[in-house]
Amino acid sequence: MLASSRPRWKGRVTMRKSINWPRRRRSLIVLLLGLCFIGLLIWPAFHWTRANVKGMTGRHDSRLSPIIMIPGSSASQNRFDGLVDQLNKADKRKHSLIKLTVKKNDQITMSGSLRPRDNEPVIVVGFENNKDGYDNIKKQARWFSLAFKRLTKTYQFNNFKAIGHSNGGLIYTYYLEHYFDRDDITVKRMMTIGSPFNFSEANLDHKTQMLADFIKYRDSLPASMTVYSVAGTENYDSDGLVPARSVEAGKYVFQGRVKHYTEITVTGDNAQHSDLPQNRQIVKLIQQYMLDKRMQPNRKRGLVGANPENP
Amino acid sequence: MGLTQRHLLRQLVPRLQRLRETNFYRVIQRTLMLTFPFILIGTFSALIQQTVLTKSGFFASLFHLSKWVPYYRYLHYPFDNLTALTLDSVAVVAAFGAAKYHAKLHQRDDQLAGLTAAIALLVMAYQYADDASAFNDLMLGTNGLTGALIVGGLTGEFFKWFGRPIRDDHDVHTGQILSRTFQSLLPMVAMLIVALLVSLGLNWLIINTQTEQLWENWQKYATTSHSVWVTFAMAALTLLLEIIGLFGPYQQQLAVNTPAMNANLNAALTNHSATNVPYPFTASTLYHAFGTFGGTGMLLALVIAIFIGSNNHNYHVVARWGLLPALFNSNGPILTGLPVLYNPIYVIPFLLAPLLNMAIAATAIAFKWMPPVVYPVPVGTPGPLIAFIGTDGNPVALILGGVCLILSVLIYLPFMSLAEATVSASVIKATMEGASDDA
Q: Superfamily for A65-290?
């Protein structure tokens, strides 16, 4: 049978008598080595878990909740300077402004710094290659994932708010569907401003490849996120560049998948596509919907959502 | 004590020996031996893949390998490949072996029977879907061993029913081989048709996806429950299913972050202490932390029991090869090498040792001697260190891990001796009869 290669027996089944000491010694040496190996690992294991738990506690206790913005195509990391100025004036708080640029070779440059006691900095992530097109959006989403990773290492935050103007909203959507997988960080809210989910195609029967992909992978979107999709209109069907219908196509991606999906249409002065980030109405919307409410002494912090839907 | 033990041995050994010598059990044992080298290679490959080349792996985490090892991101590909085609396809080998040995017992063409069974298994595992991977992983990996044995056995039976006996292999010329092939054609075709029907059934009736969903729901229920009794019952069920080559609700590979784990972690992070968490008695705090040293069934304890108490050369060889994987919770080599799988002798310790450890851990947690395991533990952490890491370096957890290991060794020792006595009794009998039945 199986164990017949070298029968060691002396006439009868006597288990005690025929102990083979050299063999057993070899095995015991192997065992000893194994246990020493484990023993040597105790110390590094201890250090690892202490550092890991400390890091997690830090992130968990952090009150930092940045607003991370992505500009649209052909725009740089300075795209939102005007918006942040207006926001600071309206909000009567000075939000720090931190800018990141991801180069074509994955290098990241960073400027600006977090002011002390500022829990809600604005972070803008721009790309050296800021061209239009689905292929570029995919690349930019990957570049954004690198920038985001850098941010999580530099700043300990456990939640953030996302704002994307034009293609920035598309980059965010692609990023959230394909790259974002942190358990310890949540996207609280996202606002897309004039984001053409169906590119320049106004007819929703003709879905572009990008929209089809967004819909295909929509189940990877964080379910706890609240999404606002802001459209600007100069006339009844476009903001001068992006068809209102294309912005509206975002509902096929978000509606029923994320916690809340709200569509907002802004008209009037400065409702042209490129003016949208400076539009006073939109600044107000950002202040109202995206910024965290300031702590109010008679209410418990953490239970206050900024959503008007669930106060 | 010694007297009763000898008495017991005299009672049990002949019975177990008779079981070992049934054709049924011989086929199973030889098939497992055939899968052993593939499982051994695959286990070592998986070990490197999981502990070193996965970012959340044990060595990768402890020594921050992903930061300084060049080309770290790409290094895992060759090992993925090797693991997928050895450990995760081992059922094909098992189907081949079962059919081959079964056919050989009845003097049928064993090569053709083996190959037919291997192909039949692949036919059954094939998925008629566009976007899924071509084969069903559950049917081809170690979890498919029992299914593969059934397929192989059935193929052997078909060859017995529909084929004719062949004379021995010497001096055959091409014409004879050809006629022999044609004699085997009927059972081959019959088996492949059965396989196709099964495959059609699995695919068309969506049995595959349905069982998968059912299975997922069941697992979800098992892992999210936080009642002490459900945890213990599910652990016992998992152990029982695993020793007969199937898979249970707590199987390690499938374990994911459960809501209970997240709730525990959140509470611990908020309170800056793990002592008061909402769900102290779950699969992750008890079963995975204290019941799986050396993989399912605490087989690390069996390895140590062999080192200390065994006198069987083969046992020592298997145990030495199996020690390193067992330290990192892979039990494949021990399961198939001794074998422990389908071995009635080991059923009791295989269940008893993990459950006793869980009970000890539950007691320790209930009396607040140590906090429950709530913090993340890297993949492939050595069994005795899991609780230590998962409690943020609590020394009591480390000591308790050692105590559990020693207790399990003590539980395994007598059963190991019984298995060894049965083996040597068979060897003696075989030598006395002068029969050498080994291929």
A: Alpha/Beta hydrolase fold, catalytic domain (3.40.50.1820)
